[in-house]
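The aim of this short unit is practical: by the end, you should be able to scan a pair of folded records and say something sensible about each. We start with the first protein, listed as its amino acid sequence and then its structure tokens.
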Amino acid sequence: MSKTDFWINPSFEPKRQFRFLVQLSLPDSSGGEQDVQFLAKSVDRPSYSISSNEHQFFNHTFYYPGRVTWNTIDLTLVDPVSPNASELLYQYLQSVGAQVPTSVANATRTTITKASAIGAKTDILIQEIATDRGSNESKIKGEWKLLNSFFTDVNFGNHSYDSEDMVEVSVTVQYDWAEYAVKNEKLRS
């Protein structure tokens, strides 16, 4: 098959933006975890930047690659009545060690650490879904895993009398690096 034939090849299947899952569990008020997979409305795919260093030699400039930096991603969740995404994300804030400063003892009792921020939730997995050519069955075809991730910004959305839209919660996720794996797994029921 030549490269130009892929447009007429019925087995060619591009990845679609709307076919994804976000695997994430957050702490709930009972001390357990609540899966929020079905709350995800949109998510950025991971991205990275490589810095460059300039070296000048006489009348010439040469560039050398530097460090890799993984960029933050944005995750948008719908905020239903149950499970309450606002409550779960507020519980995350308490689980990482942030305390309401109602007294000197409360204000200084704990602080946020990297270990507490990472440990207060499960790893974030962004799964790409496509139809299996042989069976027309939806399968996970690729998966991004965000390592050592934690939330840096949470915006609980807004209310407006002139809108019937669902309330959304926006979350910015920082992570040390991401790993991508090609998969061919059935979706869990």
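Turning to the second protein, read its sequence before its tokens, just as you did above.
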Amino acid sequence: MDEQQHNALELPKGLYEPVLRQPMELDFLLGQELSLCFHDLDGSHVFKTCYGDICKAVNALRDYARLLEMACEQWDLTGFHRALYEYHAEKMREIAGKFQAGIGYDYDAAMEKCRRKKKRKKKEDDFGEDALVLAFKRTKQPAEQMKEADTDVDDSPWEEDEDEQESDD
């Protein structure tokens, strides 16, 4: 028997392959570097980047534009400073728009998805947490439920003993 066959796991290929293959292909495609070139007075320039880097640049440009607009409002800027901040914010949005159109990314849709995800109730059984923290949370939950039940009906044996002692007197 071949040594590789002996060490290989025998799992149903049809069941596991689609789940495993899709993220790997996606990571491979998104991580592929692209060559971008531009021309200026110094001549041609070429640099390599990937989809994820451009997404991060779009996010940063849009966030910076929003920060500039917030600064105008919060600092009560007027005149030249306000016009300058608003101009830069608009330019940042234009540049981000070019980049996201070029790669098919939508900042607004990504932000909405993030907001919806943030509104969801956080699960208590986070598999990334430390085992001791999870164990503590699980022991704490039944104790809290028992306290709630105890406050509704007081079945303390000591109160019965006190009542019996008073009746004996």
